[in-house]
Amino acid sequence: MAEVEPVPAASVLLLRDDPFEVLMIRRPEKSSFAPDVWAFPGGGVEESDDVDRELFEETGIRIIDFEKFVWTAHWITPAGMPKRFDTYFFLACTGRGTVAAPRNGEIVDVTWISPADAVERHLRGEFPLVFPTLKNLEAIVGFRSSEELIESRRKAEIATTRPIIVVENGKKKIVLP
Questions:
Q1: Using one digit for the tens of pLDDT, what is the confidence trace for 65-75?
Q2: What is the CATH number of the domain that holds 28?
Q3: Alpha-carbon distance 24 to 28, whole Å?
Q4: Contact 140, 115 (CB under 8 A)
Q5: Does 16 reside within a domain?
Q6: What is the pLDDT averaged over residues 3-10?
């Protein structure tokens, strides 16, 4: 079987303050990739797409000024997966009054949630997340505001994260090397 090449993708950790929260979207049960999980807005991008377009297509939120997006992570789906993505994660901030709503059937629900609550609910089995989403949430737990988080990433060196698949007790598991 030929190796699947990663598709270019982008995700946005859209933040708001008082209290510090991140926007999460729920993917449909019949989604071809990561069905019925909570994720950040985004997805595969084509050359004509940009991060703002993906955000708008899924949630109706538009952030036109690209300077407001700050790169925070870069993940490449492990070799051996049937679908692979080369995903850049960006931070952006919006006001408390910003309304997000599912659009175009790409998502079925939206919620604003603190990163710590999302991680805790996931660990209790109440808030399903895929590995990169969980790890990106864990990385922002402890920040008190979007400004503090964004400033910490502005000049940070962002390494590419390349998880691998291992077999434990007969089951495949994604881990960091």
A1: 777 899 999 99
A2: 3.90.79.10
A3: 13
A4: yes
A5: yes
A6: 91
